[in-house]
Amino acid sequence: MPDGSTSDAFVAFERVQKSYDGETLVVKDLNLSLPKGEFLTMLGPSGSGKTTCLMMLAGFETATHGEILLDGKPINNIPPHKRGIGMVFQNYALFPHMTVAENLSFPLEVRKIGKSEREAKVRRALDMVQMGEFGGRRPAQLSGGQQQRIALARALVFEPELVLMDEPLGALDKQLREHMQFEITRLAHELGITTVYVTHDQTEALTMSDRVAVFDDGRIQQLDPPDTLYESPQNSFVAQFIGENNTLEGVVKEITSDSAVVQLDDGELIDCKPVNVSKVGERTKVSIRPERVEFNKDRLKEDAHLLKATVKEFIYMGDVFRTRLSVAGNDDFVIKSRNAPDQVRLKPGQQIEIGWLPQDCHALDA
Amino acid sequence: MGRQRPIRNSYDGDIMSELKGTGQQTADAPTPEDAFHEAAALDARETDSQSSGRNGGPVLAADGTPLKRSLSRALRRQKLRALALIAPLLIFVLFSFIIPIGSMLFRSVENGFVEQTLPLTVAELKNWDAESDTLPDEALYQAFVTDMVAAVEAKEHTKLGSRLNYEQTGLSSLFRQTGRKIKKIDPETDGPFKDKLIDIDDKWGELETWRTIKTHSVRYTNGYFLNAIDMQRTAEGAVAQPENKRILITLFMRTLFMSLVITTSCILLGYPVAWILANLPARSANMLMILVLLPFWTSLLVRTSAWKVMLQQQGVINEVLVWLGIVPDDARLVLINNQLGTIIAMTHILLPFMILPMYSVMQTIQPTYLRAAKSMGATNWTAFWRVYFPQSVPGIGAGSILVFILSIGYYITPEIVGGTKGVFISNRIAYHISSSLNWGLAAALGTILLAVVLILYWAYDKIVGIDNVKLG
Ligand SMILES: Nc1ncnc2c1ncn2[C@@H]1O[C@H](COP(=O)(O)OP(=O)(O)OP(=O)(O)O)[C@@H](O)[C@H]1O
Ligand SMILES: [Mg+2]
Question: Which of A93, A97, A110 sits opposite B382 (nearest CB)?
Fold first, then answer.
């Protein structure tokens, strides 16, 4: 888990703890650092402390312990309005009594920027989110997606170096959501802004971010680029949380530095890569992605261990086939195969043998 | 349904391109129009199946009566039942509110009593020129004696005296005495009456007396309203009251001014309380709310009397100040029986009416607005003033309307703690209702008060917009 050296980091959390009631820690020992220009996403289930982290960074909550550094300087004692951090709130928080243009010029006014310059900046910001004609509207006269874009423009209009976004797309439908995901990443990269983005939608996290911090139980479970996160989860929580995943339980039988054999609870043996296990006899949860499961023996090594499986259900999904199998007592084992001309369509009740490359299958903590 | 369309059309044209831009899901989404068409289609289908079964003609219900008629009969029964349910309230409101107000409005101009009591005299007075320097002729005196004898028999002459006494002092005793002595005169045989009447009282030989009677013999008068604004109705038209009788305009002005001061102090005191209430955790907020509502649960009279104990010169506040040495013993503060006393007591009494609407509006203002403002660089004060305060204005508006209108008509508290300098126009109205019995003037004052409230309400609607007022 790279928590990085904090010296060249733009934002850094150092051993930060937070408790609201003095009894339970909502954030336990948070270490995080991000360089300038990075798009970092905090991903995690509800109540895992993501918003709390953002609020501490923005200055609306104070850390119970530890230090938060911005550009190398501790900010624990700087009041929120002096931190210069742009923020998009989950419910947009557009001021209902101001027009869109007034909303956008508010942060400029409090910075005492002259009228003409203000107007120019507001216009540029509106154009940036393609809302140029909507300056005279009130927020209530806009659709959800339009409000979202205005909230984004408002957080960016005073050119902050750091922008925090708390589930800004939570209320949007899928299509608009995807469009906005693209817009946000484009803007963030174009303007070179450092972004901390909070979501509990894992696709969103994977598609948008440079790195993703997976939160659970007040800790960062894994902090990695999306591909690493998906392909080499560090523990079974991350494996479960990110993407679709098949889990089998068993005991380690053989182990070397880069491969292991696990005996499943019904006695069968499988190949996998040891991640969180170190010695023979340890219990483990083995995790494998549906698209990495092979049932065509030609594509596997000769000595690969194979598992017997019964086809339970075949679902045609257009671009992929999704097949539910019963494997080693697990009735919810899913495999996905691309809809290619030569692809076999399995039938319910069919008996097959499945296997995989050892590096695709991770032996994680039990 | 009809309402949906204009709203849609009122969007700028570009909204349509917006909708097209977002693609399918907008097109597929059910719109109100769809629902409407569906409902219409359903209706059509139903009527179709009905009429096709009966091969044309009016649609009949199961018992053979036309469907429309039996439907309207069923609806009528429903309406009657609804009406019966609200009837008690309706009748109550009618008798306790609408009719009294109507009668008050009417009473402020109604003046039939003079003509009823002195019908012949009033008819004769029409021939007399009130501007002239000559007394009326014998015919009028004869008519008057005839009327007067009848009035004395009916015991109406003292009432008439009181009525005319509002306009000219001394007429009350004149009518009483004349009534006693006129019994000796027989209107049939004892003429001429002119000198006899003047013998009974010199006032019958004065032009002024007859002018007053003539001026106030009309059936509908503007006299009460003129009185209410410190003027009087005379033979020469409307003129200002003599200096020493002009108090009503001052009272109106004072009522408005003091209501304004009370409203302002309620805003200043209530706003922070409402703010704390809205931002405290629920449990503590409930406790505080009980404190705010406590005054509601105590009798108004008790509260006002308590203020008397607090504010008088030997009262709690003065004693404490003297004891602390802030105020010398021989110069105790005058806190009661003046405007200050009224303002203090009424602010306290009306405060909940200000706090409650402000609180209910502030509760709906999310704390994220303030956070958003601060994250954009606003100081606490700017964030409050530019973002929070404007959103709380509807609450202030609602509270102000309530407090202002309530205080403009307040009566008990000024009566008890207001002394002479701190009384309101309502105290004057009460005086005319119960002491001077000049109900016409009381009604005119009440009507003006009602009009002032309505005008202010209208002005508020024009300036702030009544839609902006939230009462809960
Ligand atoms: N003001 C507060 N007082 C007390 N506890 C709080 C407060 N705010 C949050 N919590 C608690 O802290 C924990 C973390 O909350 P937080 O809002 O950070 O979660 P989150 O990760 O943002 O969740 P979500 O995805 O649902 O927004 C939760 O258990 C929550 O109950
Ligand atoms: Mg949250």
Answer: A110
| Structural domain contains residue A6 | no
Chain A nearest C-alpha distance from B101 (Å): 40
Note whether B267 and B224 are same-domain residues. Answer: no
CATH code: domain of residue B366: 1.10.3720.10
User: Looking at the complex, does the CB of residue B369 fall below 8 Å from at least one CB of chain A?
Assistant: yes
Considering CB atoms only, which of B18, B377, B391 is closest to A84?
A: B377
B371 in contact with A, Cβ within 8 Å = yes
Q: What are phi and psi of A265, to 5 degrees?
A: -65, -25
**Measured between alpha carbons, how far is A2 from A291 in angstroms, rounded to an integer?**
28
Residue A117 exposure: Cα atoms within 13 Å on the Cβ side: 8
What is the C-alpha separation between A177 and A157, in angstroms, rounded?
Answer: 22
Q: How many separate domains does chain A show?
A: 2
Q: Cα distance from A310 to chain B (closest Cα, Å)? A: 39
Q: In whole angstroms, give the CA distance from residue B254 to residue A256.
A: 97
Maximum mean pLDDT: which of A342-351, B95-104, B256-265, B296-305:
B256-265
Q: How far is the CA of A216 from the centre of ligand 2 (A)?
A: 13
The answer to whether residue B215 scores a pLDDT higher than 70 is yes
Domain interval for residue A120 = 11-231
Chain position carrying tokens 């029986």: B337
Contact A81 B377 (CB under 8 A): yes
B32 and A CB contact within 8 Å: no
**Is-contact A312 A329, C-beta < 8 A?**
no
Q: Do residue B445 and residue B299 come from a single domain?
A: yes
Helix segments in chain A, DSSP class H: 50-58, 100-109, 115-128, 144-156, 174-191, 202-208, 226-231, 236-241
Residues B224 and B273 in one domain: no
Give residue B450's domain range: 248-468
Final residue of a domain: which of A201, A231, A261?
A: A231
Residues A77 and A172 in one domain: yes
Say if CB B104 and CB B219 are below 8 A apart: no
* Banded pLDDT at B166 (limits 50, 70, 90): confident
Alpha-carbon separation of residue A132 from A95, A185, B177, B191 (angstroms)? 18, 20, 89, 99
Q: Could you say which of A87, A95, A158 has the minimum Cβ distance to residue B369?
A: A95
Report whether A231 contacts A225 (CB < 8 A).
Answer: no
- Does residue A289 sit in the same domain as residue A172? no
Q: Which of A49-58 are b and which e, b meaning 16 or more Cβ less than 10 Å from the residue's Cβ? A: bbbbbbbbbb
Record: contact A81-B368, CB cut-off 8 A = no
Q: CA–CA separation, A239 vs A232, rounded Å?
A: 8
User: Does B21 score more than 70 pLDDT?
Assistant: no
How many Cβ atoms are within 10 Å of A265's Cβ, its own excluded?
13
